[in-house]
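Here is the promised in-class demo. Please do not try to memorize the tokens; focus on the logic of going from shape to residues.
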């Protein structure tokens, strides 16, 4: 793997981590229906987790370790 490809892969991982961190900082607003807010939070967590796992898998493939 070239240094450039590794740098690009690391950049994608850093951006994915930044999105996860931004999502963690944005607290859900609990209004009248806490169950709906918790559902939205769980969905957001699932989406961010899948995006992070996908980014890590792509980096693994680029590095040839997976």
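The designed amino acids, position by position:
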């Amino acid at each position: 793997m070239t240094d450039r490809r590794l740098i690009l892969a690391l950049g994608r991982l850093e951006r994915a981590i930044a999105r996860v961190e931004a999502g963690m900082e944005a607290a859900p607003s609990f209004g009248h229906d806490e169950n709906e807010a918790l559902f939205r939070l769980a969905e957001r967590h699932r989406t961010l987790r899948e995006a992070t796992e996908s980014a890590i898998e792509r980096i693994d493939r680029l590095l040839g370790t997976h």
